[in-house]
Design a protein that fits this description.
Layout: H1 7-16, E1 30-32, E2 38-40, E3 42-44, E4 54-57, E5 63-67, E6 76-81, E7 86-91, E8 96-97
Antiparallel strand pairs: 1-2, 3-4, 4-5, 5-6, 6-7, 7-8
Length: 98
């Protein structure tokens, strides 16, 4: 995890279960809330089958959505690229699933 992240952000990452290690760790894009505390930006997917679902935005502009186990794939994150045009899967340890 990036050093120097605010406690609130670290708590938010932990509560959401976002991976902080592995080959593809989540690195948050931050904004300030009304009280001036840093929080992770949330954004909705704009196109594709996940359109309208909100997820956490990372520093590269990708939207991370939680997805449950299916098709022999354990619980994971669908990482949406370009608003939902494409995606890839990342397990809960931060490793890309094939």
């Amino acid at each position: 995890m990036s050093p120097g992240l605010a406690d609130k952000v670290v708590e938010q990452i932990g509560k959401a279960g976002l991976p902080i290690s592995g080959s593809t760790p989540f690195v948050p894009r931050l904004t300030k809330n009304r009280r001036g505390d840093y929080v992770i930006v949330k954004q909705a997917v704009s196109i594709g089958p996940k359109k309208g679902k909100k997820g956490f935005l990372d520093s590269q502009g990708r939207i991370w959505l939680r997805d449950r186990a299916h098709a022999d794939v354990p619980d994971h994150r669908d990482v949406q690229l370009r608003g939902g045009e494409e995606y890839f899967r990342v397990d809960m340890n931060g490793n890309e699933l094939r």
